[in-house]
Amino acid sequence: MVWRLHPLQVSYYSEVVICALYSVIVSLIADASRNVGAEGWLIGFIAGVYSYSALFSNLLLGYISDKFGRPLTLFIADIFYSIFSGITGLYPNKWYILVIRLLTGCFAGIISVGIAGVKDYSKTKEQSNKLMTWVVLSMGIGYIIGPLLIIILSLAELKFDLFCLILGIVSLTGTIILSVLVPETRTFGGSVQKKRELRLQNSTKVINENLGDEPERNSEKRPITQNYNSLDHNSNEEGLELIEIKDQEFEEKRTGTPAKEEEEEEEDYDNNDDQDDNKDNKEREEESNQEEEDKSKQEKESKKEIENVSQKKQGNEIKKSHSFKEFLNKDLILLLFLYFLFNIPRISLISASSLLVKDIFKLNPSTYAPLIVLTRGLMITISAKFFVKWAIKKFGTLWSFCGAAFVCTILLVCCAYVKQFWGFLVIYAAFCFILSIHTTLTASLIVYVAPKHAVGRVMGFAQVLASVAKGVGPLVTISIYLKSVTVFFYVCAGLTLIQIPTIMLINVSKERKEGKENTKEGGDKNSLIKNEQI
After folding, report:
1. Domains in the chain with CATH codes
2. Which of 386, 358, 392, 388 is nearest to 372 (CA)?
């Protein structure tokens, strides 16, 4: 018996690989580039140049995955990502590190491809939320595995180049093993939805062909059966005609009048009566048909109106088109803006972790900086598994998101005044535990609002915004950090606080729409009841 995995598990593995390698390198890259000779803004640029190349790879890999399939795209991107991540620290030069990080980001679009794969296997919002939690869990596992290996390897006093090389080899072997367990990684094929559409088209063609052949066959059979029946009854019909002729001759002899004239008069009288009856019946049938047509039209119109109202309430009334502007509505724009905002403080804290450990806490960055990333991965995994579902059920989407943003703002302000590493680690753990609500809710809402035929492009654009945030964030915040650590934390807190009014705009606009549609739906139902009573 061959052991096989589901194609969706390829996306989970890809999230683990990219988060493991990214978390390790990004937590140490600032201190490593400073040791090589980078200064000032160049440290932040090296930390964020990965995201600039990822900006284009998200769109490109999203398009390729829509056309050639998710598993194959993920498999190829995982191989190149593992190779470039493994050779990051082989040559101690700031420009070499800059170029390698730029090439590594060219295959970082596998995050958008993995999230887009959720849409292929989810039909409702609840299913997309469940699958999205597994995506967040896989990201959390990646943030645990990578730093944990670095902490273990740091006990042997290894350097940055060996850290990257060992992790690259491990992820590359795992990708090759996964290609054996998932045969879809070795075949060209579109997404699941495209395959379903092709199956439906083929089935409808077969049904139409069968239905088109049946009336022709029946028309060929009918004349044959009629001829056969006529041959069987020829003898009986001839005998009846002879009997009728003899009866007519007998009546003419007895009465002296031809029987044909009497029969013609009776037939004319009967025909006139039949014509009158037929006219009355036709008039009645026409009246009844008109009434039925009027009723059917009213029912169809009422059903269409109710369906339109329900579609508007669910937010599924997005026109299918090939241009990105036509399905980019207000809610989707605000959600993409949220996706951009919460990535800036998140990536800024990770990028500055090695500098914080070395400058403020006076500790070894190769040991304690991965510990910060490990704490982040543990908190995200625990929160996504237990806390996020409970918070959404208990408080709803709006209050869960707003409460999490407010608490995260307070925690970031507290980090500015902590002078001990373990106190900072506890506050940062609470920050990451609550921040996972933003990741789960924002990504699942974007996937749910996006149209089915373009979910890869929408998530690619979302990852483009995230890449811009990951590139601009370290460049600006690390420059601020080199001048003032307190201002650095206050800027991150302000960017988190802005998310509250943004999510309020999305929910308020939906409630207003639902209120108007409820009044319309109530009026439609009352009118339907009155029509039925009439």
Report:
1. 8-195+334-521 (1.20.1250.20)
2. 358
